[in-house]
Amino acid sequence: MTGYFSSPFPRRVSVGVDVGGVMVGGDAPVVVQSMTNTDTVDVDGTVAQIAALHKAGSELVRITVDRDESAAAVPRIRDRLLRLGIHVPLVGDFHYIGHKLLADHPACAEALAKYRINPGNVGFKDKKDKQFADIVEMAIRHDKPVRIGVNWGSLDQELLTRLMNENKAKGFPMTAQDVLREAIVQSAVLSARMAEEIGLGRNRIILSAKVSGVQDLIAVYAELAKRCDHALHLGLTEAGMGSKGIVASSASMGILLQQGIGDTIRISLTPEPGGDRTREVQVAQELLQTMGFRQFVPIVAACPGCGRTTSTVFQELAQTIQEDIRRNMPVWRTKYPGVEQLKVAVMGCIVNGPGESKHADIGISLPGTGETPAAPVFIDGEKAATLRGPNIAADFEKMVADYIENRFGSGARARAAE
Ligand code: SF4
Question: Would you say 418 is a known binding-site residue?
Answer without folding.
Answer: no
